[in-house]
Amino acid sequence: MVDVERFTILIKSGFIQRLDKLSTPARMVVLMTALAITGLSLEQLLSSETNVAKFTWLISSLVGWVTVLTLLLHRWNKAGAVERKILFLLTIIVIAPNLLALLVIGFLCFL
């Protein structure tokens, strides 16, 4: 099992500390914006023709997903019951399929 506190301390920044001061709807907007920005890089992958561009996309997407997952783990520890349900649904509906697609596309980049 991952030690969530140790993991978030390693990546913790002023951004995450400021995120704690936001209301629950504002936190969800920040998470959805991070997901949208990460999803936009998929378009760059599809339009790129060289392996260097694909590798650059893969690295930037992984950094984006580490950020999103860190924010989710950090919020999960401090979330109330309603926010945990929202985070769980967000993970199941949005994050899990996109992360799986990222892994498959990343694997295909190196074939």
Describe the structure.
This protein has one domain (4-109). It has 5 helices and no strands. The protein has helices spanning 4-11, 14-19, 24-47, 51-78, 81-109. It is elongated, with a radius of gyration of 15 Å.
Largest sheet: none
Instruction: Give the end-to-end Cα distance, rounded to a whole number of Å.
Output: 32 Å
Runs in which pLDDT lies below 50 for 5 or more consecutive residues are 6-12
Number of strands: 0
Shape: elongated
**Distinct helical segment count:** 5
Mean pLDDT: 64
Q: What structural category do the secondary elements indicate?
A: mainly alpha
Overall tally of domains = 1
Quick take:
By secondary structure, this protein is mainly alpha-helical. The protein contains 5 helices and no strands.
SSE topology sketch:
Elements: H1 4-11, H2 14-19, H3 24-47, H4 51-78, H5 81-109
